[in-house]
Design goal:
8-stranded parallel barrel
Length: 286
């Protein structure tokens, strides 16, 4: 039986309970290659992890939290400490999904040894099962170094947000033959290095299909193709929490609109002195 953190129900709204289910493993995810599509979403908090966990195979503690949670202009300023804090929260809030945590910009690029120090810190601090890092062929030796030392790695090719300054923006990648060939070479290099999974982001669809067919690891698409082995979205995007929706996102709700309506109703009740009412106040005992 898998159990989650035990919290005092008298003082905490987060009350994880033991669940008669084993958490999925990295080998189990890799074995899904070519099988039922994998479901992956980002999560940054205990409560969101609790809500997503029963429906997801993987939860990604993405460095997108820099923009989603902290309002930063990009993922570049995100720190290891930020990732560790949110990663630990997501692990505490889940019992089923494999939790993957992003390695932030600057925490792994300089050497395999730096990457190992950062990855081991994140796994120790959070209890996550794997790390994710961006980059293609140039990062293959680092991926191999980590995998050979017992750290499961998910790669990330195509549109790599940490390289936004070098790429010149968030446009789709692979429109030229040279760039398409480079993305495919990157995917194959990361696969050969031992990654169990590979996020393919923001590429023209034929590249995502070809990459999925040419690697042994599972591929997770975002702005790629339904033919990938699975899909991932930023949870706040698919729930409609922001005004701007990227082209590759399908809004499954308008949560921002519903929150706004609820807060408007609350404000009206407060200003009209109809809240709190008898049901929300305490009467003296007889």
């Amino acid at each position: 039986m898998s159990t989650t953190y035990t919290l005092d129900t008298a003082t905490s709204r987060a009350t994880p309970t033991p669940a008669p289910m084993k958490r999925l493993t990295v080998p189990a995810i890799r074995a899904r290659k070519g099988g039922d599509p994998l479901v992956m979403l980002t999560a940054y908090t205990v409560r969101m992890a609790q809500l997503l966990d029963p429906h997801c195979d993987l939860l990604l503690v993405g460095d997108s939290l820099g923009q989603v949670i902290y309002g930063l202009p990009s993922t570049i300023p995100v720190t290891l400490e930020m990732m560790a804090a949110h990663g630990a929260a997501v692990v505490r809030g889940s019992y089923h999904a494999v939790v993957v945590i992003d390695m932030p910009f600057g925490s792994y690029e300089s050497s395999p040894e730096q990457a190992f120090a950062s990855a081991s810190y994140l796994l120790k601090e959070t209890g996550a099962a794997a790390v994710k890092l961006e980059g293609g062929e140039v990062m293959a030796p680092t991926v191999r170094f980590l995998v050979e030392r017992g750290i499961p790695v998910m790669g990330h090719v195509g549109l790599t947000p940490q390289a936004v300054n070098a790429l010149g923006g968030y446009g789709a990648r692979g429109r030229s033959q040279a760039e398409a060939a480079k993305i495919l070479d990157d995917a194959r290099a990361i696969d050969r290095a031992g990654a169990f999974g590979l996020v393919i982001e923001g590429v023209v669809e034929p590249i995502a299909i070809e990459a999925t067919r040419s690697v042994d690891c599972v591929t997770i698409g975002i702005g790629a193709s339904a033919q990938c082995d699975g899909q991932v979205l930023v949870i706040d995007d698919m729930l409609g929490m922001f005004d701007r929706t990227p082209r590759f996102v399908k809004r499954f709700d308008d949560l921002a609109g519903r929150i706004s309506a609820a807060v408007k109703a609350y404000a009206q009740d407060v200003r009209g002195r109809t809240f709190p009412g008898p049901e929300q106040t305490y009467a003296p005992k007889d």
